[in-house]
Design goal:
Number of strands: 6
Structural class: alpha+beta
Helix content: 55-70%
Number of domains: 2
Strand content: 15-25%
Largest sheet: 6 strands, antiparallel
Number of helices: 10
Strand order of the largest sheet: 1-2-3-4-5-6
Radius of gyration: 26 Å
Length: 354
């Protein structure tokens, strides 16, 4: 029995490794091809596309690991079911749930790997990928990329600092503008809030310090028509994709303390924890299917795993969207689908005939 378990676990690990990396390489290549027609007018080099391909690989590895796990289970144990190996195990007095237990432990480890890939690799590489796209489009480095303690140079004589950036309404909190002339600081402007309206940045209740006249004055709505930075992040950039869990958690606390609506950040924060749980769901589901039905060939098993994964992703994306819109609470939107599918998978796994 132990030899058989080791063989099944070894085969499952091999298939997970091959499928997850293979699909990640392939889909990352599709993204590069998709970006090709949009970026070719900026004359990027081959190295830029190669680097971008490398940078997006961990992102897809993170999302594809659950499908790779399901595919591996259906291929390995589906084949065992087809060849009558599972029947032979039961006939010899073995218990299928005991046979499957190491695979469930393996799924738990893969869940931690999925979370680690996001935390240690994907977040940093998403940041590199977005920087690279910005550099290709604008022929310069992305000036700012942080949500807390933001610094950027609007033009040669104007440096802006903000304690917090709120992407949803493109506003800056606790803003300080430093104006120079001839290399000397001549004016400081402070405001609690700065927002973008009608193609103009507006500072609410601004306090101006003229360092040449050594005077101070208040302005209710100070307009910056020459303030060109209309959006710190591109609309296509997901800030949560660039941030680690703890960074996102601290950012959420800052938003809450500043009185901003942090629903979207709360959803992303919970989703970072709930999505890796999908690996466990897929393993239980795959084992239940393999044990209850005499599976077909590997092509059928691959197709079935893709279909189940797509259904799961569609429902998960819908729940996340409902969370973003505020229809569902953040915690519920991120955990509804993993827990629901997990409960169904656990029920059918428990009903496996011994």
């Amino acid at each position: 029995m132990k030899i058989l378990i080791r063989q099944y676990v070894k085969e499952t690990v091999s298939v997970i490794f091959i499928v997850s990396l293979g699909l990640s390489f392939l889909i990352a290549m599709f993204e590069v091809i998709d970006k090709l027609d949009k970026l070719v007018k900026f004359s990027p080099g081959f190295n830029d596309f190669a680097l971008y391909w490398v940078y997006v690989l961990p992102r897809y590895l993170k999302y594809l690991l659950p499908m790779a796990v399901l595919m591996a289970v259906l291929i390995v144990f589906g084949q065992a079911s087809k060849l009558g190996e599972l029947v032979a195990v039961k006939a010899s007095g073995g218990r299928l749930k005991r046979l499957f237990l190491p695979v469930i432990v393996l799924a738990l480890l893969v869940s931690f790997v999925d979370f680690a890939v996001d935390e240690l690799v994907a977040a940093k590489f998403n940041f590199y990928a977005n920087n690279l796209l910005f550099k290709i489009k604008n022929k310069k480095q992305r000036l700012i990329y942080k949500t807390e303690d933001v610094w950027f140079m609007e033009k040669k004589d104007m440096i802006i600092n903000a304690a917090l950036y709120q992407p949803e309404d493109k506003s800056l909190n606790d803003v300080s503008v430093f104006v120079t002339n001839g290399g000397k600081l001549v004016e400081i402007i402070k405001s609690k809030r700065c927002y973008f309206k009608d193609n103009v940045w507006v500072m609410n209740d601004a306090l101006k310090y003229d360092l040449r006249a050594m005077s101070a004055s208040k302005v209710k709505d100070l307009h910056f028509e020459n303030f060109k930075t209309t959006n710190i992040y591109d609309d296509s950039v997901m800030i949560s994709d660039e941030m680690h869990f703890l960074d996102l958690y601290r950012y959420n606390l800052r938003l809450k303390a500043a009185g901003y609506n942090n629903q979207r950040v709360l959803v992303d924060l919970n989703a970072k924890l709930s999505y890796p749980f999908t690996c466990m769901v897929m393993v239980l589901l795959g084992l239940a299917i393999s044990a209850r039905f005499k599976m077909g060939g590997n092509i059928i098993n691959v197709g079935l795993s893709i279909a189940i994964s797509l259904i799961y992703w569609i429902f998960f994306a819908m729940a996340i969207s409902l969370g973003y819109s505020g229809i569902l609470p953040a915690l519920l939107s991120a955990w509804l689908i993993p827990v629901s599918f997990g409960a169904v998978a656990a029920y059918f796994f428990n009903k496996i005939p011994e």
